[in-house]
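Long-time lurker. I teach an intro course on protein structure, and each term I like to show students one example going from raw sequence to a predicted 3D structure in token notation. This year I'd like something fresh instead of my usual example. Would anyone be willing to generate the tokens for the chain below so I can use it in lecture? Attribution to the forum is fine with me.
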Amino acid sequence: MASGPLPSPTLPTTPTTQHRASEKREYYGFVLYLSSFVAFGTYLAWALLPDEVLHALGIYYYPTRWWAIVFPVYILGLIPFTILMFTGINLRRTPPLTSFDTVTDDCANALSIPLDPDKLRKLFSEDSIPEIEDIPISLVNQVLYQQM
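-- Reply from a regular --
Happy to contribute to a lecture. Here you go:
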């Protein structure tokens, strides 16, 4: 055993596990980045090169060229479909305008103005930070339409 001074328990240590995890993600991301270029190049070669060139390269079995057009069109069709579906689901789940749920819910934190002068002074002082509260719709209407 080596006899020497032990390191101080207060010395900073490097978080090696977090660093390794981020390095691993970086490697996987870089490999995925390069693989996407290889996949796109393979797709372009399959879609654009004539059969003779593919046969000369030793490639005899591949999907029909019909898929070279259908697959991108299908992917491009999924984009507006997804947008419309999410919009429809959100509209379906939204309560109607006549519902009381559009005004408040169980998680509401209603605004409460204290009547005690000391609390009011503290609430409106310049260095105070107010709590996050929901403003009642009647107060919003009064402020917006100048009926205060």
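Some talking points for your students: Residues 64-94 form one domain. The CA atoms of residues 71 and 97 lie 42 Å apart.
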